[in-house]
Amino acid sequence: MNGAAAVRLPYPVALAEVATSGVELTTRVDEDLLGRAAGHSIHTSYRTSSDQTIPAIQETPVDSPRVYAIRLNAPAVNWSVTLISPDGVRRDFKERTDAVTPARVPVPYPSLGAIVGKQRWPSVSGEKEEQSASAAAPNVDATNDAVRADRPIDAEVVAPDFSRISDLESADLLAQRWHEAVLCLRVDASLSSIAMMGSLLEGALLQMAIRHPREANRTNAAPKDGNKPRPWSKWRLTDLINVAAQAKWITVDLQDFSVVLRDYRNLIHPWELKAKAFHPTPGSAAICWEITRRVVDQLIAHETLTPQADRPSTSAHKLSNLPRRTEMKPGSKSIVDYIRDQRR
Q1: Phi and psi angles of residue 97, each rounded to the nearest 5 degrees, phi first
Q2: Are residue 86 and residue 215 in the same domain, yes or no?
Q3: Measured distance CA(316)–CA(307) in Å, rounded
Q4: I need a labelling partner for 199 at 20 to 30 A (CA). Which of 63, 189, 246, 291 fits?
Q5: Domain presence at residue 39
């Protein structure tokens, strides 16, 4: 390009505005280029109460740029609307959580936030309680807090519909991992949030492999003992990432980025952290969160776009039923060998 800087043009289709009225959600789809909106779809995820764990899901095909009215089962307390391109990539996203609804993931120890002066989660009693807590707390690291205020992390409280890629019980488990990752991100617990993302990534990819066993075991990256595929409990996160890329469940760029997320996840081990002489920052956690979100988006989009007839009849197994890779027994091995074997 003769030394000129490349200009990245915005995506020509976007969600212009979203509003709810009772049991109806309306959203307007706009396009910059004529005919580009057709073929997209609107993925709507919503909850009708704060106690609802798995959100209700609706898919709406897009045929032209206009206002779409989506009928809900009941008034939603929180919702998210995602614009999915014809190739299954998430292109735009909007969400809203009702201000009068308690946070989906409560802070386990709210008094800790008052002590360090970093509590930001909304309380049931409103802003007065938050202001009184911050006034009573010492001003710790005010400069860093000011920097963080200019760096919001895009972490949605409303989890995706994991039932698209797993059974209901495992979907609930993956949703819990999502909420815990969001909680850690909101309080700048960077290393803990990345550990939750690694667990979420491993669980989602494992459920996809169990959901499509023939497709997974046909890839070159599938771990085998001789010619026999290894049991699911022996699959490492590295194996799952490579299998997902070879099976076309995720793109090659996300394969590479997921390997980086795996390496950062391993920093939870003290010797890894000491060897690398690096501690994850809120910025690196935000990058890992974007990787996690996009992997989940592509897995769900794959299942949405795959015809039902092409899917195997084997149902996804429950993560809780998978055996541990090894069991620690007195005198069986050193603690170092045991922990090394548990790592993925």
Answers
A1: -115, 125
A2: no
A3: 17
A4: 246
A5: yes
Long-range Cβ contacts of 221-230 (<8 Å, 24+ apart): 221/245, 221/246
Query: Number of folded domains in the chain?
Result: 3
Q: What is the pLDDT of residues 49-91, one digit of tens each?
A: 877 767 788 889 999 999 999 888 888 888 888 888 887 777 7
The residue type found at 112 is L
Could you report the per-residue pLDDT of 177-192, keeping only the tens digit for each?
A: 999 999 999 898 999 9
Task: Collect contacts of 237-241 with beta carbons under 8 A, ≥24 apart.
Answer: 237/198, 237/201, 237/202, 237/205, 237/262, 237/265, 237/344, 238/262, 238/344, 240/202, 240/205, 240/206, 240/209, 241/201, 241/205
User: Whole domain around residue 72: which residue ranges?
Assistant: 13-97
128 located within any domain: yes
In angstroms, rounded to a whole number, what is the distance separating the alpha carbons of residues 99 and 126? 10
